[in-house]
Amino acid sequence: MTEPLRPGQTIGILGGGQLGRMLAVAASRLGLHVHVYEPGAGCPAAEVATRTFTAAYDDTAALTEFAQSVDVVTYEFENIPTAALDVIEALRPIRPGRRALATSQDRLTEKAFLRDLGLATAPFANVESAEDMAAAVDEIGAPAILKTRRMGYDGKGQARLKTTDDAADALAAMNGAPAILEGFVVFSHEVSVIGARGLDGAVACFDPGENVHEDGILRTTTVPARLTASQRTDAVLLAARILTALDYVGVLGVELFVTETGLIVNEIAPRVHNSGHWTQNGCQIDQFEQHIRAVAGWPLGDGSRHSDVVMENLIGADMDRVPEIAKSGAALHLYGKAEVKPGRKMGHVNRIVQGS
Amino acid sequence: MTEPLRPGQTIGILGGGQLGRMLAVAASRLGLHVHVYEPGAGCPAAEVATRTFTAAYDDTAALTEFAQSVDVVTYEFENIPTAALDVIEALRPIRPGRRALATSQDRLTEKAFLRDLGLATAPFANVESAEDMAAAVDEIGAPAILKTRRMGYDGKGQARLKTTDDAADALAAMNGAPAILEGFVVFSHEVSVIGARGLDGAVACFDPGENVHEDGILRTTTVPARLTASQRTDAVLLAARILTALDYVGVLGVELFVTETGLIVNEIAPRVHNSGHWTQNGCQIDQFEQHIRAVAGWPLGDGSRHSDVVMENLIGADMDRVPEIAKSGAALHLYGKAEVKPGRKMGHVNRIVQGS
């Protein structure tokens, strides 16, 4: 299917969290219907979707009905079981494609892909056994960080090695899951590029944002990021190279460490990205609409930045600050989650700092 | 009820057209649920609402269930039957209030209200009989326009008098409905002010836009409008005076004729207004969120204009131009209406002309 979707056709979204919710709103703006597939009941995206399938990812009948009810399928998270993707792909195109998912679902595959593209990454080694771990520690040393190859996010599935003496404890913390040992990178700050590639191969990147994390969770993204002109060009060009190498369709997030010797790729996410939320109030076309346009086979929109923005995540008890933020006149975006939990992303706020 | 709604509470919207749809999206952004009440099936707002009641405005049981399911009720159109409002108001607050609805539902009441506020209007006279018509024509002369007092919109329910000889035909065209004869105003152009008033009495107006109509339907709104500094101040002050006189809560549209002797009020609409759609891409907080904030008892947001914008309505066969507009990078907003009809508003496009 290479024809663009017509208004009235339907995009299926796997996952019903806040990213699915904001994708659904963007699709509605273009006159497209959205069907959401999500195992959990009462998910944030259900409220703004035409239809929601509440079923598990191993429910072949539900997956089949979902796929048959839509024209193209996309997703808001990368850890979708392979078997579910197989069921869907037999019926409808999945965008971004399987290669992007396979690459980003496994930290080892991802790092190898980036290295083969000629991009700089932290030193890394595969760890599936105590012997692997010993060899990896010999090669990489400490400090280092051991991460499960699959299913990690927001700092979960990770163990730090302050010294090589921590190796055994770190390995035990993986509970036998295949892992990757990553060397420590000395960097001044982290930036990310949100890139988009259309079905026609056109690439458009948003201006890089500068990220600050707290407890492994993104706290703020500020645009413009502190980057020299040549670093900014490098960041955008390497994102474009990744998009093209993956024959990618949609929006991709690329996290980068800024070091004295250049940019080092931390990780990629084959989806709209928390560090791109500022685009909702800094650009005419935001990352959510850009993703929907790409997935729908539409031309990409104008994502140039019209304002300087600071995006702040509202996490857990930050919800107590909503009345005060509402008063400030800043642009508030809440996700409609019923329960506040520590560490849970409940919303975000975009503050326009000045026109640019 | 004067406490602000908390995230997770529910706003009821009477009417499920494009205005209801865009209000629902704004409410979702603030973490509020939306229940829509609309007699027609498959309405544009249903897709982005938590729940939709498909029932007639004389269905007391459905109106009761709807009102009981929400915390506050608003509306996207002013011609709601009084009996339906009575059912709802016994259960939940209606914002904007009944006075604003009663005033704007009847052209004669509206004109009298404006005149009593000391604002300039076209000359007008009540016409309920042939005798009234003769007296009105004597007083106002021709050219003039005879309009039904109730239920007119987009040029419907109107008959022009080029000369006084057209009086009998015009009266016959009203089919016995009470009408109002309005004198012709010589004006250079039309502007509108979208004003908002919070539950706390705070007033905030968007920058006036300049409107161009075709066949009685709004075609484009351009900001900034051609107005002198003092005209701009007058426009905003008179909108504020109307909002305060009505003890209004929510967004109100005020259409104004620009004449050599000053601004003349054409009509008011107690709701978000087509001529305010440019705010979606010209302001940090748009008219839809401003309305939801007011109705929810929240503080108004920052509606200052960051860009010059031209809003163009996509009417009927304009939908054929969607692929070309999508390519232009402009901000497209489609309403998800299944059927294209001549004269039907299908969407709009906002073009940022330059930052300001």
TrEMBL record, chains A, B:
Residues 111-296 form the ATP-grasp domain. This is N5-carboxyaminoimidazole ribonucleotide synthase. ATP binds at residues 107, 147, 152-158, 182-185, 190, 213, 266-267. The keyword Protein biosynthesis does not apply. Its EC number is 6.3.4.18. Pathway: Purine metabolism; IMP biosynthesis via de novo pathway; 5-amino-1-(5-phospho-D-ribosyl)imidazole-4-carboxylate from 5-amino-1-(5-phospho-D-ribosyl)imidazole (N5-CAIR route): step 1/2. It is an enzyme of class 6 (ligase). GO terms for molecular function: 5-(carboxyamino)imidazole ribonucleotide synthase activity; ATP binding; metal ion binding; phosphoribosylaminoimidazole carboxylase activity.
